[in-house]
């Protein structure tokens, strides 16, 4: 049973590392802010979760799980928030091609100054 769990942990680490690598490549290769944010958040977060599960399977100890759960929770909380703030600022700076947006929910909010609550 130990060999099976170690093999599963190895496969999870490899898949997680591959996802993190594709996130880094996506940051370099994609040309606009929304696609870069997609590459920076989604595969990177999933890669980190898979690596944390692999560590928990490999070490098989409850203190390790108790240490890894807050790491995953903080990552799940901060990655979408930071991506949202970067995307909103890029929209306000005008670095997002507005013609490529299907729905523009910030069209009215972008015209009001930030200090006015918009």
TrEMBL record:
Pfam families attached to this UniProt entry:
PhaG_MnhG_YufB
Q: Which UniProt keywords apply?
A: Membrane, Transmembrane, Transmembrane helix
Query: Record keywords: Transmembrane included?
Result: yes
Molecular-function GO terms, alphabetical: sodium:proton antiporter activity
Stretches that traverse the bilayer: 7-28, 48-74
**What family does the database annotate?**
Belongs to the CPA3 antiporters (TC 2.A.63) subunit G family.
Quote the protein name from its UniProt record.
Cation:proton antiporter
Q: Which organism is it from?
A: Microbacterium aurum
């Amino acid at each position: 049973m130990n060999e099976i769990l170690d093999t599963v942990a190895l496969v999870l680490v490899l898949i997680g590392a591959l996802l993190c690598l594709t996130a880094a490549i996506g940051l370099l290769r994609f040309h606009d802010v929304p696609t870069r944010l997609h590459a920076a958040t989604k595969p990177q977060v999933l890669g980190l979760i898979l690596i944390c599960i692999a560590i928990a399977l490999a070490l098989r100890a409850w203190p390790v799980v108790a240490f890894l759960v807050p790491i995953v929770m903080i990552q799940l909380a901060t990655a979408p928030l930071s991506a949202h703030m970067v995307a909103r600022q890029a929209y306000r700076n005008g670095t997002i091609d507005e013609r490529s947006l299907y729905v523009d929910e910030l069209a009215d909010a972008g015209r009001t100054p930030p200090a006015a609550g918009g």
